[in-house]
Amino acid sequence: MKQITILSGKGGVGKSSISASLAVVISENKRLVAVDCDVDAANLALVLGIKVDDFEKYEKISTNEKAVIDPDKCIGCKKCFDSCNFSAISWDGNSMRPSINEFGCEGCGVCTLVCPKGAISQKKIFNANIGYAKTRFGFYVVSGQLNMGESGSGKIVHEVRALGKDLAKDTAAELIINDAAAGIGCPVIASVVGSSYAVLVTEPSPSGFSDMKRAFEMVDHFKIKSGLVINKHDLNPEFCKEIEAFAKEKNISLLAKIPYDKSFLEALVNLTPVAVHNSKIRPIFESIAAKLLNELEFSD
């Protein structure tokens, strides 16, 4: 199963808008599944016009555990308190007993290991929801949402991608498009690993360029072939040339330069991919799609 992961490093450069439009255009010739790998702030389904009630499946999952203390076994030795690196265990000087802050606990298990009486155990918790819905364009989008205050976004991305693969098999899809989160942290690494191709999206600004270079280093580390899309390129033509020079130096294919256009914002407001909202922009995405399918060596 071939997978394209779209990432940017910096947020706000139009990555999800580009992911949605590419998915729509490619789906007209290839069967695909779109996967939103930004489980902290999932919005790909929204861009594709999906609402909460449209999800065919949306269920709780557990990828984390949290520590629980059995007060009948606790002897107040304070070893768990001294060993917690996340300051999730507090000490009550009056009762001489520890207590666990469930929002601070990372479920690392150190307290369970150091407790001499086996008074601390690890309990599974539901820390996210994942599911899928069929878009009006004929393909499915898979989405996940980490619960507020919980951790483990990288693990949730793994589960979301696994659901995307299962759905792709069930629907005989030829391609999966992963829309990664901003940054280069755990959820983005979990989005990129195992991909066939990476699309780097940037804008002609120092911060956009800097973060894109960091994203490229990560992609290059995993030996994944990559291409570049420069969004809003005409806002800073001179700086855009610097980005193009970097891409040429690193052998990154320049897939497209997209001009600044207010219809991107209008499309988001109307929960519609910009390639559908504005027919004048569609040829840009058709060109990107053709180049990507060629890079992935899809036969006609």
Rg on CA atoms, Å: 22 Å
* Largest sheet, spatial ordering of strands: 3-8-9-2-10-1-11-12-13
Report low-confidence residues grouped into runs of 5 or more: none
User: Could you give a short account of the major beta sheet?
Assistant: 9 strands, mixed
Number of helices: 11
Fraction in helix = 25-40%
Q: Under CATH, the topology of the largest domain is which?
A: Rossmann fold
Mean pLDDT: 94
Query: What is the class of the largest domain in the CATH system?
Result: Alpha Beta
User: By helix and strand content, what is the structural category?
Assistant: alpha/beta
How many domains, in number, for the residues? 2
First-last Cα distance? 17 Å
What is the CATH homologous superfamily assignment of the largest domain? Answer: P-loop containing nucleotide triphosphate hydrolases
